[in-house]
C-alpha cells in the first residue's frame, strides 16, 4: 500500500465513524426509539443496527436444538417437596444458569396486565412518551432505545422503559408513566415475594441456611426493565438484544408469547420457549461471584422480532446494595476452602455498575473478568 492508499483508507474510516456518530445522534434525537422508525415505515433498517459481517456469517453455523431450559413447578413447596425443588434449582443453576418457574405465586392476571401496560406505554402518543426519554442515570424513570447506544458497535432493535425502584417512595406520582404506574407498583410487590422465595431456595442449594443470601444483602429488587421489541423488517441483519449476562444476583423475567430469547448452552443458542403464565429466572454475574462459580451466570440474547406484533418482556433485576458506600460482596466464606480457593475478589455493586453503563452490552466473560482474584 502506498501513502496515498493509506491516506484514503484513513479518510474513509474517519468518514464512516463520523457518519455513525452522526446517525446515532440523529436517531437518539427523535426520542421516538425503534418504534418511531417502524411507524415511519422503514423497510431497510438504518446501518447503525446492522451487525458486522463476521457476526452475521457466524450466525449461519448455528442450528436448532431439542434441548430445553428446565421448568420447575414451585407448587411442590406446599406439598413437602422443597428438597426436590432445591435439587432442581441447583442442577439448573449449575448448568443452564436459567430455568422457568410455574405456580410461582405471581397472579396471572397481573402478568397479563404488565404485558398490556408495556404495550400501552410504548403505543401511546409519541409526544407523551418523549417526556420520559432520557439517558440520565439519576432519573428513576428512563425511557430510551439502547442504553449503550453511544458505546455499542451495533444498536439493537428494541426500546426500553427502565424504573429504578430504590427511589420509588420519593417518586412524585407524575414522574411515573400514568398508563402503567399502578400495575408496575403491584408487580414489584409480587415479584419481590417470589424473589425472596428463590433466594431462600438458592441459599439451600448452596448448602447454606435459607436466609443466608438475603442476610448478605443480595435481595433488593433494584430495577424493573420493560422491553419493547417492535417488528423488524430485516431481522436477519440485527438483534433484539446483544449477547450479555446480567449485572445482578438474580433476574426474574416475564416474556410474552412471541419468543426470541435464546440462552447459550453446550456451544449453541437454545430458544427459551414462552410458557403461558411462566416466568424465566436466571442467575446473574454477582451470584456466580459470591457462589465462587458454583452457580453460573450464562450468556443470552434476543433475536430481532419477525412477528407483526411487538414483543414485550419485563426483567426484574435483584442487585443487592447499589452505592459504593455499601459493604463489598465477595465469594461466600463457607464456600471456599484450600481445595476451592476464591476465584474472585471482593467488589462493590456501584463500582461494577459504573463500568457496565459506560460500555456496550457484551458477553459474560468480559464482565466477570474484572472480578477475578
Ligand atoms: O427480553 C428478553 O427476553 C431478555 C431481556 C434481558 O436479557 C435483559 O433485560 O437483561
Ligand atoms: Fe439479560
Automatic annotation (TrEMBL):
GO function term, MF aspect, one: dioxygenase activity
Pfam family of the protein (one): DIOX_N
Domain of life: Eukaryota
Fe2OG dioxygenase domain segment(s): 220-320
Gene3D superfamilies: B-lactam Antibiotic, Isopenicillin N Synthase, Chain
Reported cofactor(s): Fe cation
Key words, A-Z: Iron, Metal-binding, Oxidoreductase
Family (UniProt): Belongs to the iron/ascorbate-dependent oxidoreductase family.
Name of the featured protein: Fe2OG dioxygenase domain-containing protein
Amino acid at each position: 500500500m502506498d501513502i496515498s492508499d493509506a491516506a484514503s483508507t484513513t479518510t474513509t474510516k474517519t468518514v464512516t465513524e463520523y457518519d455513525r456518530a452522526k446517525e446515532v445522534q440523529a436517531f437518539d434525537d427523535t426520542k421516538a426509539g425503534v418504534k418511531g422508525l417502524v411507524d415511519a415505515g422503514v423497510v431497510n433498517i438504518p446501518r447503525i443496527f446492522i451487525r458486522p459481517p463476521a457476526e452475521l456469517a457466524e450466525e449461519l453455523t448455528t442450528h436448532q436444538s431439542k434441548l430445553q431450559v428446565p421448568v420447575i413447578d414451585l407448587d411442590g413447596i406446599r406439598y413437602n417437596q422443597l428438597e426436590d425443588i432445591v435439587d432442581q434449582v441447583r442442577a439448573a443453576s449449575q448448568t443452564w444458569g436459567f430455568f422457568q418457574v410455574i405456580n410461582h405465586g405471581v397472579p396471572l392476571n397481573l402478568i397479563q396486565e404488565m404485558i398490556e401496560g408495556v404495550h400501552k406505554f410504548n403505543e401511546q402518543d409519541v409526544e407523551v412518551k418523549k417526556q420520559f426519554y432520557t439517558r440520565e442515570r439519576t432519573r428513576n424513570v428512563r425511557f430510551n432505545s439502547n442504553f449503550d447506544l453511544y458505546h455499542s458497535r451495533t444498536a439493537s432493535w428494541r426500546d426500553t422503559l427502565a424504573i429504578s425502584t430504590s427511589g420509588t417512595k420519593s417518586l412524585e406520582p407524575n414522574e411515573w408513566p400514568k398508563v402503567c404506574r399502578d400495575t408496575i407498583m403491584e408487580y414489584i410487590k409480587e415479584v419481590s415475594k417470589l424473589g425472596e422465595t428463590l433466594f431462600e431456595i438458592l441459599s439451600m442449594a448452596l448448602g447454606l441456611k435459607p436466609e443466608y443470601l438475603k442476610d448478605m444483602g443480595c435481595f433488593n429488587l433494584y430495577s424493573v426493565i420493560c422491553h419493547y421489541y417492535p417488528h423488524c423488517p430485516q431481522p436477519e441483519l440485527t438483534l433484539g438484544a446483544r449477547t450479555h449476562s446480567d449485572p445482578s444476583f438474580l433476574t426474574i423475567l416475564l416474556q410474552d408469547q412471541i419468543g426470541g430469547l435464546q440462552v447459550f448452552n453446550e456451544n449453541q443458542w437454545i430458544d427459551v420457549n414462552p410458557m403461558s403464565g411462566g416466568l424465566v429466572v436466571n442467575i446473574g454475574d454477582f451470584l456466580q461471584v459470591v457462589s465462587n462459580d458454583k452457580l453460573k451466570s450464562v450468556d443470552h440474547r434476543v433475536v430481532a422480532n419477525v412477528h407483526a406484533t411487538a414483543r414485550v418482556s419485563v426483567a426484574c433485576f435483584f442487585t443487592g446494595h447499589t452505592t459504593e458506600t455499601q459493604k463489598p460482596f465477595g465469594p461466600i466464606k463457607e464456600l471456599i476452602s484450600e481445595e476451592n480457593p476464591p476465584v474472585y475478589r471482593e467488589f462493590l455493586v456501584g463500582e461494577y455498575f459504573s463500568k457496565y453503563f459506560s460500555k456496550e452490552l457484551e458477553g459474560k466473560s468480559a464482565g466477570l473478568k474484572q472480578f477475578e482474584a
